[in-house]
Amino acid sequence: xxxxxxxxxxxxxxxxxxxxxxxxxxxxxxxxxxxxxxxxxxxxxxxxxxxxxxxxxxxxxxxxxxxxxxxxxxxxxxxxx
Length: 81
Known about the structure:
Helix content is 63%, strand content 7%. The chain has 81 residues and is mainly alpha-helical. It has helices at 13-16, 31-43, 45-62, 65-80; strands spanning 6-8, 24-26. It has a two-stranded parallel sheet with strand order 1-2. The protein is built from 4 helices and 2 strands, in the order E-H-E-H-H-H.
């Protein structure tokens, strides 16, 4: 959606979000980091927009519907051969 991301580093989130590159990750023991990220996004719109653009580009490069279909075809091809 082209929005800056602040997310808890749980489950597989860190497969999609790389802290400081395409979003901000925080852990439950570091809630202050989430609050600081909100303030940074508010105070530095260019930074927030840069992370958002990278997140969107990374999503389409790694997780788009087309990528999932391509990966599924590869798996099915390996299974049937």
